[in-house]
Amino acid sequence: MLRCGLLGETLGHSYSPMIHHELGEYDYRLFEVSKEDLDAFLCSDRWDGLNVTIPYKKAVVSYCAELSEAAERLQSVNTLIHRPDGTLYGDNTDLFGFLYMVRRSGIDPAGKKALVLGSGGASVTVKAALEQLGADVTVISRSGPDDYDHLDRHADAQIIANTTPVGMYPHNGAAAVDLRRFPRCEGVLDIVYNPARTALLLQAEELGIPHAGGLSMLVAQAKRSSEQFTGTVIGDEALERVERTVNHRLRNIILIGMPGSGKSAVAAALGKALGREVVEADELISQRAGMSIPEIFARSGEETFRKLETEVLAEQGKRSGIILSTGGGCVTRPENYPLLHQNGTIFRLTRDLAKLPTEGRPISQATDLAQLCARREPLYRRFADGTVSNDGALEVTVQTIKEALL
Ligand SMILES: Nc1ncnc2c1ncn2[C@@H]1O[C@H](COP(=O)(O)OP(=O)(O)OP(=O)(O)O)[C@@H](O)[C@H]1O
Ligand SMILES: O=C(O)C1=C[C@@H](O)[C@@H](O)[C@H](O)C1
Ligand SMILES: [Mg+2]
């Protein structure tokens, strides 16, 4: 079996093993190697093919007996092949990956003014790709004339490409720039892939600007690398298939709906059917407060409950692959939407009002359910990616959600 893997310093975040598992029949491991051990590792025969990531893409260049044209030009290697004669060949498949990401996004940089945020390793590749596609590129970095304090000079930018780690897990929610400063912006590209929708992309979505995240780039660069590991060409149709598979596996499934509409029951059944972890937001809130939900309402009031709820949703929303059963009122706070939406597909459950239990549910007891439902209806609709009736058997609801995920 070919021994491949990803070389870097800290790799816990990487989706590469999952992607390569979908692409080919070889062993793919994470090689976390410190700077002191890099030389010994590269010269060892512990591997046949590698992807290289931060902070080693430049450091490995000097080890290569031969470089591809792209690796030579960018002086950055993300694919290393151990050749039979013992020498190393280096390629840069990130360039192909980013070009694919742009193509797939439908955003056309030709003849447009583009800002590349960040001047680290990935910036060079993204700049080269955008220039290859005909854009006029300015790199924004933390120092120099085009820094973040002088963005007004570039208010006419039409394409924004983020290559910084701002907003990347676990620092979700941050964005390198506020897109409202670029009224002519018509395309936003963020190479970060975790979360699926960074704060920058969520803002682009809100402003109606076409946008794309980094997963398609990650999959495309992996495909190109995989072809070189094995010497076998992989059809382009694999790109969308693998992206879909990874997306499907990592996406959170979020359930919202009226108190008692069945979120907890459906989440538990769905968790069993899909073999996924189920998280009950209310349980975490009550653990955090050290008392039950009715007690929080009685002692500290709804405001305190909502604040705790937002904290819990911020923590859970940035996770991947979970099923999250929320409290019925989470939609009353607009700031909860990006927390749930960044990595999740949000399903709203509906159930006959007459069937909704009110026991242990302070809001349902204090209000007329029909009025509550009328008030909440537009809020649920605003949050939901899809609405699923839970009026039939639980299994039917579960099946409907499973099908909607495909
Ligand atoms: N499809 C269904 N068929 C029969 N009973 C159901 C169905 N869905 C939910 N129930 C029942 O309805 C009750 C309320 O469901 P559940 O506690 O899951 O709602 P919830 O939306 O999580 O409520 P809350 O907002 O208070 O957390 C439970 O007794 C549950 O077993
Ligand atoms: O996070 C990852 O798994 C990777 C990121 C990029 O640096 C890629 O160039 C690398 O091949 C894999
Ligand atoms: Mg519940």
Automatic annotation (TrEMBL):
Its cofactor is Mg(2+). Its main location: cytoplasm. Keywords: Amino-acid biosynthesis, Aromatic amino acid biosynthesis, ATP-binding, Cytoplasm, Kinase, Magnesium, Metal-binding, Nucleotide-binding, Transferase. CDD domains: NAD_bind_Shikimate_DH, SK. GO terms for cellular component: cytosol. It is an enzyme of class 2 (transferase). Gene3D superfamilies: Leucine Dehydrogenase, chain A, domain 1 (3.40.50.10860), NAD(P)-binding Rossmann-like Domain (3.40.50.720), P-loop containing nucleotide triphosphate hydrolases (3.40.50.300). Catalyzes the specific phosphorylation of the 3-hydroxyl group of shikimic acid using ATP as a cosubstrate. This is Shikimate kinase. It comes from Dysosmobacter segnis.
